[in-house]
């Protein structure tokens, strides 16, 4: 059985660590690839030697070089990649970001909460997403 594959597109190292920590709680095998911006992610997806077609992409919106919305636009125009499941992860609660992402056919939108008291990011919503949604997508869809 093929291990499910996840592509995490995130420029914030603390968020990468938080996602990795949440994914470990799946207690199932998976393959995680990480890109730090949209350009890097597209290179990975288009690299014929890597043959990366992830089951799910977890995508930050606010990134340097190519943000999440720009990445999504390119992804949806690519015949080979246009149908990939993409979940947006962002601290942005801007309605325009959400609306634009939804127009581009995202599978879900996760607001990354911040704990302003001690300036650390909380993993509550990521843990809930991983346990209740990602687990179902990766392991119950017959993958």
From TrEMBL:
Pfam families: Response_reg (PF00072). It comes from the Bacteria. InterPro entries: CheY-like_superfamily, Sig_transdc_resp-reg_receiver, TCS_response_regulator. The modification 4-aspartylphosphate is found at residue 60. Residues 5-127 form the Response regulatory domain. Keywords: Phosphoprotein. SMART domains: REC. This is Response regulatory domain-containing protein.
